[in-house]
Design goal:
By secondary structure, the chain is mainly β. The chain is built from two helices and 19 strands. It has a 19-stranded mixed β-sheet that branches. β4 and β5 form a beta hairpin. The longest helix has 9 residues. The chain is globular. It starts with a helix and ends with a strand.
């Protein structure tokens, strides 16, 4: 278990881990189907199909300590679809299936010596219910293969990084009272570790893998708070955004339905993260605002995301390049 938890922390350089301090309680959230042109569709989710593509660029830190990492441009894709699935109580329901995939290559440098290039990949799939059910998760799974910094100030290249390959699966009961988390170290011949976590507490609960998507449905009229399992610590924690800031956001040849778009949009910018002590780095997000509730052209899409690399080694910037929105 310890090895996999350390791997979870190491993967923070690539995986959204939502770290931000804050205060205040967690209330029940109300979601709108802002990923549709008609945001009032609600429970009518059949026939949903959306694909988004992002380029992932690396912004190095301003100072060089002698230990650094560099990344080539990577690709991050997301896919949303609707499917008829069996729920934990054996009933069937049309639910959302949301999948993501990140691929990026890089290399570490220490003491003037650059190591071999590596390629990291992270895939995830989460199943969750419609807005009437507050996007309640059914299950999620993630496979992570990363080469992460092993120390803040390594003295040799051999000590600078470590490769991890593991999977993380979460299954929920129908009443959302508990989650069964299974972690497997795929790089070692060891048995999977399983843990049952109580989800008791007030306020909306979201699976870690659906958070970026679910925020599209909040509208950002104020700061947002909810609960989720911290995948590193394996405990339920409150998660919150900062108060949204309105900004103009310029699209640069973003392919929307195959047509290049250079529009300037109204966007919400927020920081996102866990509440509590030792919150860590801040993740910054930009979402398109609702244009018209019955003709929502840009579907409150995530436009940009900035994720800090561990130990202050830089920032990974995700920028939307292509969107095929649901035709409804």
């Amino acid at each position: 278990m310890k090895k996999i938890r350390l791997a979870g922390a190491a993967a923070a350089l690539l995986v959204p881990v939502f770290l931000l301090s804050g205060c205040g309680g967690v209330a029940e959230l109300t979601f709108s189907a802002n990923w549709y042109r008609n945001t009032a569709l609600g429970e009518d989710i059949s026939g949903t199909s959306e694909t988004l593509k992002y380029k992932v660029s690396f912004l190095p830190p301003e100072t060089d300590s002698g230990f650094s990492v560099s990344y080539e441009e990577g690709v991050y894709t997301t896919s949303l679809r609707s499917e008829l699935r069996e729920l934990p109580d054996k009933s069937t329901e049309t639910v959302y299936v949301y999948s993501t995939e990140l691929t990026i290559s890089g290399a570490y440098t220490c003491g003037g010596e650059t190591g071999k290039s590596f390629t990291d990949s992270i895939t995830s799939t989460v199943v969750f219910r419609n807005t009437a059910r507050r996007l309640a998760p059914v299950s999620s799974e993630k496979e992570i293969r990363v080469t992460a910094p092993a120390a803040m100030n390594p003295s040799t290249l051999e000590e600078a990084s470590r490769a991890y390959h593991y999977s993380y699966r979460t299954a929920y009961d129908i009443g959302m009272t508990q989650a069964t988390v299974t972690m497997t170290d795929l790089s070692a011949e060891t048995e999977a570790s399983e843990q049952t976590i109580s989800l008791g507490g007030a306020g909306t609960y979201l699976d870690n893998e659906e958070i970026l998507f679910a925020l599209r449905g909040t509208g950002f009229s104020s700061s947002v708070a909810f609960r989720s399992i911290n995948p590193v610590r394996c405990i339920v924690q409150d998660v919150a955004t900062s108060i949204p800031a309105e900004e103009d956001y310029r699209l640069e040849n973003v392919l929307i339905g195959g047509t290049a778009d250079n529009s300037t949009l109204k966007a919400w910018r927020v920081n996102l993260g866990y509440q509590g002590d030792n919150p860590g780095g801040v993740q910054r997000l930009w979402y398109a605002q609702t244009v018209n509730s019955s003709a929502n052209a840009y579907r409150n899409v995530l436009l940009r995301m900035e994720v800090p690399v561990m130990y202050g080694l830089g920032t990974l910037c995700y920028t939307l390049t292509e969107a095929e929105f649901a035709a409804k």
